[in-house]
């Protein structure tokens, strides 16, 4: 298991609790922390937890994922964002599916949780309340229902999203991990997916488990990452010949912040502090 952390101790606590509630424990949890001090971990962990510090004021997401993968000792790399609670069969399914298809990359179903100040733990057991979690979660309307599905091929590699994905360490190594030239928010996962496609690695939906995304307020569009998105979109365009993150770029253009054509992305102006503040969504918004 690999995860990245900057802040979000409560989310991390829930992720840890989810791993402690697995029907089969992971061999280890690798935590790449993008903050000075590592996150707090319970002392009585039933599996190894190892930390690696990845400094950088701007989010070094690609570098952090590479550092976590390099430190991992197992053959299965299951990457899960810190704001996720793995369902109790996540580790078991990750091990099973990688053993069956080593050159595959697998995306579990994600259930999005509403805001809940008291969290998702069962106070009596100290474990996640999976009954409440399952009843409260909602699948993204653009994603398929994987009930009754074991494994299903995905036609487009752009479905890959860093929130949760699973692959064999040799598959990761075959493309050299993530491109660390992508710094800050956006682009590194789509670039990684393109290189996986070139290497002949298939992309699959994985049934039999759900990862539950813990709520946090989101910006729509993510104006707080404006400059990083522009830089990374341009980097992707130079490398692959088309644009990624077009859903955000289109919204930036509608706001008069950028202009874009097939070859150039031009910054017209930066978003104002008021525009950034207004883009922050309320507790009722689960999806960005």
UniProtKB/TrEMBL annotation:
Pfam families according to UniProt: Glyco_transf_7C, Glycos_transf_2
InterPro entries, sorted: Galactosyl_T_C (IPR027791), Glyco_trans_2-like (IPR001173), Nucleotide-diphossugar_trans (IPR029044)
Domain Glycosyltransferase 2-like: 48-110
Protein keywords: Glycosyltransferase, Transferase
GO molecular function annotation: glycosyltransferase activity
Source taxon at top rank: Bacteria
Family: Belongs to the glycosyltransferase 2 family.
Descriptive protein name: Glycosyltransferase
